[in-house]
Amino acid sequence: MFAPPSPSMPRALPAGHRARILQAAREVSFPPGARLFEEGGRADRFWVIRTGSVDLDMRVPGRRAAVIERLGHNELVGWSWLFAPHVWHLGAEAATPVRAHEFDAAAVRALCRDDPAFGRDVTQWVGDVVAHRLHAARIRLLDLYGPYGAGSGV
């Protein structure tokens, strides 16, 4: 996330590091229904949404993929690129037309290795996003598959 977050969202990457990481970005767009990545695939890039929304989903045996969370403006799409073995843990699909900054994961990991302060802040930023997404996934799965009302108040 590039902008300051709300209290329920992970903290943003510091301004100086946002500017630095944006130098490694390219602008891309996706039509509605485009798959950005599939669960189990190679995590070699990531995105920050400029406009539109992306659904994160999870395979559920014998059912359609469960949408875990919908991401929008300034939100990070993809975190598996930072942590070995660099394999996607979820899938992602454009829910609306999307414009985004796309980052090459290997290039950003190299920036992190070359500048420990930058690497620490990027890792903290992504780690905060991971913690938020795990909590959201837990609540969503309880809503879908738990006893009535199990996901509320968690």
Automatic annotation (TrEMBL):
Q: Which domain of life is it from?
A: Bacteria
User: What InterPro entries does the record tag this protein with?
Assistant: cNMP-bd_dom, cNMP-bd_dom_sf, RmlC-like_jellyroll
The record ties this protein, via Gene3D superfamilies, to: Jelly Rolls
Give the Pfam families listed for this entry.
cNMP_binding
Annotated Cyclic nucleotide-binding domain residues:
9-78
Supply the SMART domains for this chain.
Answer: cNMP (SM00100)
From the record, what ranges are coiled-coil? none
Q: Which PROSITE patterns match?
A: CNMP_BINDING_3
> Which protein is depicted?
Cyclic nucleotide-binding domain-containing protein
